[in-house]
Amino acid sequence: MSDRVDAFPHWDGQRPFVFADPSKNDKARSRMDTAHELGHLLLRHDAELGSQLLDRQATAFGSHLLAPTGQLRDELPGKLDSVGCTNSSAAGACR
Questions:
Q1: How many Å apart are CA 50 and CA 22, to the nearest integer?
Q2: Where exactly are the transmembrane stretches of this chain (predicted)?
Q3: Angle at Cα 36 formed by Cα 19 and Cα 33, nearest 5°?
Q4: Which residues make beta-bridge pairs with 18?
Q5: 51-65 pLDDT per residue, tens
Q6: At a CB cut-off of 8 Å and minimum separation 6, what does 33 contact?
Q7: CA–CA distances in Å: residue 78 to residues 15, 36, 73
């Protein structure tokens, strides 16, 4: 993969695939890349690649999948609001 592509989704008939760069040394980022691409697949983003709206939706999906706001709010009472993470998961909103 190139330096610009960390992961990408692909449909092979009815089978979804996510291809991720195995050389990445940041496991947390690799998980987010994979969750983001899974979002594209599950949200059926068949439109033009590179759309900012579609990327924001896929990022929100991946963020909520990996760090659900409700669960974080229970485990870190008051902390999310203090850093501006109120309506989406900490992973997506607090970069």
A1: 22
A2: none
A3: 55
A4: 9
A5: 888 899 999 999 999
A6: 6, 7, 20, 21, 24
A7: 42, 27, 7
